[in-house]
Amino acid sequence: MDRAPGLMSLKMEMLFAALILAFLQSFVLSDPQGDALYALKLSMNIPNNQLTDWNQNQVNPCTWTNVICDKSNNVVSVTLSDINCSGTLSPMIGALRTLTTLTLKGNGITGGIPKEFGNLSSLTSLDLENNRLSGEIPSSLGDLKKLQFFRTLSQNNLSGAIPESLASLQSLINIFTGNHLNCGGLNLHLCESYSGDSGGSHKSKIGIIVGVVGGFVILFLLGGLLFFVCKGRRKGYRREIFVDVAGEVDRRIAFGQLKRFAWRELQLATDNFSEENILGQGGFGKVYKGVLADNTKVAVKRLTDFESPGGDAAFQREVEMISVAVHRNLLRLIGFCTTTTERLLVYPFMQNLSVAYRLRERKPEEPVLDWTTRKRVALGAARGLEYLHEHCNPKIIHRDVKAANVLLDEDFEAVVGDFGLAKLMDVRKTNVTTQVRGTMGHIAPEYLSTGKSSGRTDVFGYGIMLLELVTGQRAIDFSRLEEEDDVLLLDHVKKLEREKRLDAIVDRNLNKNYNIQEVEMMIKVALLCTQASPEDRPAMSEVVRMLEGEGLAERWEEWQHVEVTRREEYSRLQRRFDFGEDSLYNQDAIELSGGR
Questions:
Q1: Are 34 and 158 found together in one domain?
Q2: pTM above the 0.90 mark?
Q3: How far apart are alpha carbons 192 and 214 in whole angstroms?
Q4: Residue 101 sits in the same domain as residue 45
Q5: Can you tell me the mean pLDDT for 321-327?
Q6: How far is CA 213 from CA 120, 180, 224, 284, 430, in A?
Q7: Any idea what DSSP says for residue 108?
Q8: Distance (Å, whole) CA 103 – CA 535
Q9: For the chain, how far is it from start to end, CA to CA, in angstroms?
C-alpha cells in the first residue's frame, strides 16, 4: 500500500518535467523571423519542389535557401524572384524589422500589398515588379524612410490614388508604370515618368518648363560657384569641390544601395592612385586601397581595356546587375565612377586580402591558413558561386574563379570577388563572349577552344581553386619541370592521387595539421569539378552538397569507371604531339585577367 503514493508522486514529477520541457522547447524554438518567413512561403503558394528547407522544425532561418543574415543572425535579405508562385503576401512579413532587401519580382503574386510592409523600417530595396498585385498602395509605405525604389511596383494591377505619404521618398523612380494609378496632386518626381494618369500630359509640359527654368538656375549657380572657387584660390584658400572629369557636380545616384562617386573623391581617397596603395593587378585593371572622407576603407578597381558601345548608360546597366547579387559569400559593390575616359568600381576593403595572398605571399609574421579555415573557405566560395549561377536573374558567370579572386573578410570568411566583370568589360548585344577572360591553368578547355563560357566553366575554375587550397601551389608552375613533366597542378595532383600519395599533395605549411580523410574528400570534389567534358561536371549546388557530405561517394565511383578509358586516350594524344621548350611561356604573362 505504501508504494502507491510513491509511484503516483513519481508519475506526477515526470508529467511536470515533461510540461516544463515542452514549455522550454516552445520558447526556445519560437523564432519570429522564421515564423514570418514560413507564413510568407505558405501564403505565396510556393511549389513543393522549391524552398524545401524552409521548415518550421529547422529553427534558424539563416540557413534557409535565398535568405541572408548578418553576423547577429538577423535576416537582412530575402530573394524569391521568378519561382512561379501564385498566392498572396502574408502580413506577418512586417515582423522582419532588420530586413534591408526584399525581392519578389517575376511571380504571379495576387491580392494587395499588406499595410504591415510599413513596419519594415530597415528596408532599402524592395522589388515587387511584374506580379499581379491589385488594390491600392498602402500609405504605410511612406514610413519606409530608408527605401530606395527602382521599378519596384511596375507591371502590376494596382489602382487608386498614389498615397501622399510617398511624396517624401525622393528616391522613387519610375515605379508605377504598367498600373492604373491616379497621381492626383503629388510632386512631379513621382509622376512625370508615368503615362497612365489622366494629368500625365499636362504634367509633362509643366515638367519641361520646370526643367528649362531649373537648367538656367543650375547654370547660374555653377557660374557663381566657379567665381567663388577662383576667388578663393587667389586668396590662398583650399576647399575641396568634388567635380568629376566630365564636369558633373558630385551627385550620388542610387541603384538600390549603389553610390556614384566623383572622380576627385576617389582620387583623394587613393592618394592620386599611388603605386604604394596597389592591392593587386590583373587583366581587368589595378586595385587600390583607399580611405573615403568618412574614414571608410575601400578597394577601388580602376578598369582598363573596357569596351562599352552603349556608353555610360550601358556601363551603368551592367553595374546595376552586378549590384543586385547580394550574398554573404559575394563581394558587395559599394559604388562606381564613370567619366569620359575612366571606369572605376568601389568595394569594401578586405583586410585579410585574398586566399592566394594567404597561401603564397603572406609575410613571415602572418599566420598560415589552417585546415579548418581552408574547409570553410571552400564551402563559402561554393555557396557564393551557387548563388550567382542558380539564384541570380539573369544568372552571372564569373569566368575567372581562382584563389586570387576569393577574398577573406575580418573573420577569414570567403568572399568571391570580380564576378560579372568579364561581361562588364565586354558589353555586346549577344551572349557570345568575344574575348576569353581568365587565367591559364584555371580556364576550362572548352572555354579556351570555343570562347563560350557557362556555369560549368566556373565549376572547372572552382575545382582548380580547391587544389590551390589543398596544396598551396599555383595552377601552373614551371619549376616542377626540374623534377617531373607535370607543369599543370591538375595533372600533378591526378598523378599523386593515382599513386595514393595524398601526403605529398598537402601544403607543407600546414605541418601535417589536417585530417587526411577530409583532404581526400576535397581532392575528389576537385577532380570531379575538373573533368574534361563540361557535361560530366557537377553543378555548383551539387558541389555544395558534396562538400557537406552528401552524394560524393556515388559520383566518385561513376568517375572512376570512365577515367581509366580517358587516361588511355589522353596518353595516345600526348604521344602524337611533342612540345618543346619554345612552347613554354613566361608565367607572369599568361594571366588573361587577374584578381583584386
A1: yes
A2: no
A3: 15
A4: yes
A5: 80
A6: 38, 31, 17, 43, 41
A7: -
A8: 32
A9: 82
